[in-house]
Amino acid sequence: MLSLLKRRRWWAVNLVLAALAGPLGLHLALMPIEFNQFWIQRLEARYGTLSAGMACDALASAYSSGLNILWRWPSRTPPDYQDSQAMFAYVFSWIPSRAIAYPTEGFYYFHIPRQGDRTVWGNVRLADLDKGMLSFAYFPMPDKDRECKMCTITQKDGLDVLKRDDHHYDVSFQGKTVHFTLPPTGETPPRVLPLLPDEEFVGQIQDESGIRFFLMFNKTTTSFYEVLNEEDGVTDTLDNMEGSCLIGNRTGFVFWQDPDVGRKILVGIHLADGLANDYYDGPGDQVPFRAHLRDKLHLVYPSTLTKDGIDEHGVWRNTPQWCRFVVAPFYSYQTPQELVERVRRVDPRLPKSELWTALAKEWWYTPEWIRGMQEQLKKEGKAFPVQDPLHTLRFDTKAPPPAP
Fold it and tell me: How sure is the predictor about 1, in pLDDT bands with cuts at 50, 70 and 90?
C-alpha cells in the first residue's frame, strides 16, 4: 500500500514538472523569432541586474509562449516578404500571450534570424492602442532603406483592443489575444540622482539596447541631454577612455563622467550603429511616447515649428506615415578617438548646465543651422522661439561632421 502511494506521488510530481517544463521547453526549442523582450531579460540576468519582478515576468511570458505553441502551433515558415499584412499575422501569431514592451517609445521589437537569404528586423508599435490601432514595420538587413515595409492594422483588419488601464491592453487578432504590458518606466523620476535647480526631469528612457537613461531639459540653456541611470545597475561594462570618457564594452555608448558629481552624460554612439538603425543606435527613438514635449522641442529645435509642426508628443502633423522628431542630443562617432577630441574642445570650467549641454550638442547644431532656421521661420511668418540660441555652443563648431 505504501509503495503504491509512493508511486502515485512520484507520477503526480512528474506530471506537475512536465506541465511546468513542457511549455518552457517548447518556447526555447521552437521559437523562430527573437523578441527584444526576452533579449533584454537575458541581458539583465547576465549582468546581475534582473529584479524579482522582471524574473517573474520573463517566466510568465516564456510559459505563455510555450502554451501558445502547444495549442495554436503557428506556422514556422514566414510568408511572402512583400505581403505586409501576412507578415504581421505571422509575427503576431508568435508573440507570447503575455508580452512586455520595455522600450519607452512603445515598440515591441522582433528579429527573424533568417528569411531566405536575409535577416529581417522590425517592430509592432503600441503607442496608438488608445486609437484602436497598431503600426507594423519591418526591413531586411542590410537593405533597410530600399525595402522597408510598413502598414497599419486597425479594426477593419480584424484587430480588437481592450484597454484595461494606461499600461495594460488586451489585443486580439485572428482568434488570438495578447496581453500587452507597457511598464510605467517612462514616468518614473530619479530616486537618487540630484537635479540642478535649472534642470527638469522629462522622462526615463528604457532603450532597446537594454540601457536606461534619464532625459533632462535644462531651462537655462534650453537644451536636452541624457544621463545614465545606474540606480538598478547597468547592463554593460564601461571601460575608461581619455578625457573622463567611458565607453560601453557591449553597446559602444560613450559617456562623459563629471569628476565633481559622478553623473555620466551620454555624449556619443557609434555612427555605424546609427546608420544601421540597430539596437545600439542610441536612445533618440525611445522618448516616452506619452511625454509632453511640444513646448520644449520648440525651444530646443526650432525646426519643429516649420510647416504643420508637431503634436504634444513630438509627432509630425499631416505626414503620410507616423514620424516623430528624434530627440538625440549626442554625437555619432566613427572612432572613439574622434569623440575624445571633440570632448577636449569643451571648456571644463563652464558652469555645469553649459558644460553638460555643450558636451551633448548634436554636430549639426551650428550657427549656420540656426541662421537657416531663423530665415525659414521668418518666411513662414513665425517668430524664432529664443533670443540667444548660440550661448551654449562652446566648442569648435567648424569641426567636420561624420561622413554619411
Answer: low
Write down the pLDDT at residue 182.
97
Give the cell for residue 244.
Answer: 573622463
What distance separates the 2 farthest-apart alpha carbons in the chain?
A: 95
CA dist., res. 216 & res. 195, Å (int): 9
- Tell me the C-alpha distance between 373 and 301, whole Å: 9
Give 24-47 as a DSSP string: HHHHHHH--SEEHHHHHHHHHHHT
Please choose, from the candidates 288, 58, 325, the residue with its C-alpha nearest in 3D space to the C-alpha of residue 185: 288
Choose among 349, 347, 356: nearest CA to 394: 347
All three cell numbers of 49, joined, read 541586474
* CA–CA distance, 347 with 394 (Å, rounded to integer): 7
Q: What is the pTM of this model?
A: 0.90
Whether residue 123 is predicted with pLDDT greater than 50 in this model: the reply is yes
Q: Counting Cβ atoms within 10 Å, is residue 127 exposed (0-12), middle (13-18) or buried (19+)?
A: buried
Asked if 110 and 65 touch (Cβ cutoff 8 Å), the reply is no
Mean pLDDT, rounded, for 2-8: 52
The cell for 33 is: 523569432
- Convert the pLDDT of each residue in 174-232 to its tens digit: 999 999 999 999 999 999 999 999 999 999 999 999 999 999 999 999 999 999 999 99
HSE-up (13 A, CA, CB side) for residue 94? 25
At 193, list the grid cell: 540622482
- Around Cβ 145, how many Cβ atoms within 10 Å? 9
Across 116-231, the runs of DSSP E, i.e. the strands, are 118-125, 134-141, 149-153, 160-165, 168-173, 176-181, 199-206, 212-218, 223-228
- Pairing assessment for the beta strands 264-270 and 331-333 based on DSSP bridges: parallel
Domain ranges of the chain: 20-182, 186-379
How far apart CA 43 and CA 273 sit, in angstroms, is 19
pLDDT at 115 over 70: no
pLDDT of the residue at 398: 47
Measure the CA–CA gap between 79 and 83, rounded to whole angstroms.
7
- What CA–CA distance (Å, rounded) separates 24 from 402? 46
Mean residue pLDDT across the chain: 89
Rounded to whole angstroms, the Cα distance separating 219 from 353 reads 9
- Residue-level pLDDT at 235: 98
